[in-house]
Amino acid sequence: MTADIVDVCVIGSGASGSTVAHEIAQRGLRVLLLEEGRTLPPGASLASVQNGMDSAMVPSAAGTLTPFGRPWTVCALGGGMTLYAGIAFRCRAIDFDTRAHVAGDALDPSWPIDYTELRPFYDELERRVGVARLAGADPFEPPSDPPVLPPHQYSVQGQLIADAGARLGRLPFPTPLAINSIPYGGRPACHCEGPCNEHLCPSGARADARSPFTGIALPPDALTIALGSKAVRIDLGNVSRADSVEWVDTLNRQRARVRARCVVLAGNAVQSAALLLRSAQQAAPNGIGNASGMVGSGISFKISGYVSGTTTINPHITPQPGRPFSTVAVSDHYLDDEAPSGLGGMIYEASSPERTDCDGEIRLRLHFLAADQPMRNNAVRLATSRDGLGLPKIILDYRTHPLDKRRLGYLSRHASNLLAEAGVKQIDYQDSNYQFGSGHLHGGCRAGLDPTQSVVDRWGRVHDIDNLYVADGGFFPYAGGVNPTFTIQANALRIARRIVTQLT
């Protein structure tokens, strides 16, 4: 591989990398996909694979750095989509320009595109993978084509939550899921065969990184996937063009290099920023794309938490084991004058795998989340200490903004009210530890029109490099108040189409 020359080198095989690699390869261009991880074994869960993933340094309450950061969702072929819950919200129109709702010390949260531009890619992606949802039920749902799949039925827990929400005057609706409610796209319907979130799907009903490409034949030798291959550095051919990517085999520690006409970063928001920073060289002494010092800045993890508790159920109702992780959601508090800054977030069922009742009681659990302020000082940085591959360790220098702490409290109160209305007497609060990273990774290579305040342009192209793109959640200048996977995929498809026009 050392002497190889390809059209495009894509780094990362998750939601964005798989989308970009397949879209470009099917056009007849030669693509090399570098993936640091490997294929997950049958029965894998997040708990079983987390110990094998590198950690990052994060600040402790005392101000020292501790190795508890999570710079990955999942380091494996397929990335986070291998173990995610299948939640497939679209960002709402407000998420693309929240300047009226952020703190005065925040970075510009406005995207250089709006929902209208991204909508056709959402619609196409939904047809490819299948999303089960109920049109018009979500009061903040943006315009879209009709659903291709009917929604999933509420679990017993979901029904109790939906009934409680309706009594409070809310408008609960089925959580949109990239999990087949009926057979679709060559995948079966979900038969509730086991735990869902943070586990491999036992039936294949849940969409993964391969799902958009089922039935799409690629030209021979168009796509090469190199597992266990960590990109460690990008070298420039001149001040405005990337020439090659250096990578290391994570097993034998041998290094190799591939030259490419175009390089696409799709590792995740943290890993892509770290790679640019590691690529400091004479033409880019502070890291590639970092002339204005913005690489790594504005990293966002979404503020979030959980509330849970038990309630009594009718003894004649039998809970269904293995329903999807989330079947009902409430978006009434997304935009609310009572919320701090007027912008709240989402609340949805997040049922634990243990769905059986005990002595006539059943546990209800809600997840609440909102976008955090994009702050300049919340950043990915490189440590002076080294990891097992000899690379600088990653620092996630992140602190929750005071406004976000108030917004989190506002959502926690509304989620608790829902549980209380559902009959829960003792409500327990659980930290999500979002401040350490992991599931929702955004920013760090933020998009914008002003090169002094952003890293990439509206197409994901690094401002001062003609052939280097960022297609993952690092693109997000504002995290948006919903799960990001579906938006990452839609935006990656948009970027991939642009790259094809530039190379053909």
UniProtKB/TrEMBL annotation:
Which GO-annotated molecular functions does the record name?
A: flavin adenine dinucleotide binding; oxidoreductase activity, acting on CH-OH group of donors
Which parts of the sequence belong to the FAD dependent oxidoreductase domain?
A: 7-47
Fetch the Pfam families from UniProt: DAO, GMC_oxred_C, GMC_oxred_N
Q: Which family does it belong to?
A: Belongs to the GMC oxidoreductase family.
Q: Where is the Glucose-methanol-choline oxidoreductase N-terminal domain?
A: 189-289
Mind listing the UniProt keywords for this protein, alphabetically?
A: FAD, Flavoprotein, Oxidoreductase
Q: Which residues cross the membrane?
A: none
Looking up InterPro entries in the UniProt record yields: FAD-dep_OxRdtase, FAD/NAD-bd_sf, GMC_OxRdtase_N, GMC_OxRtase_C, P2Ox-like
The protein's required cofactors? FAD
Q: What is this protein identified as?
A: GMC family oxidoreductase
**Residue ranges constituting the Glucose-methanol-choline oxidoreductase C-terminal domain according to the UniProt record:** 376-492
Question: Is the keyword Endoplasmic reticulum assigned to this protein?
Answer: no
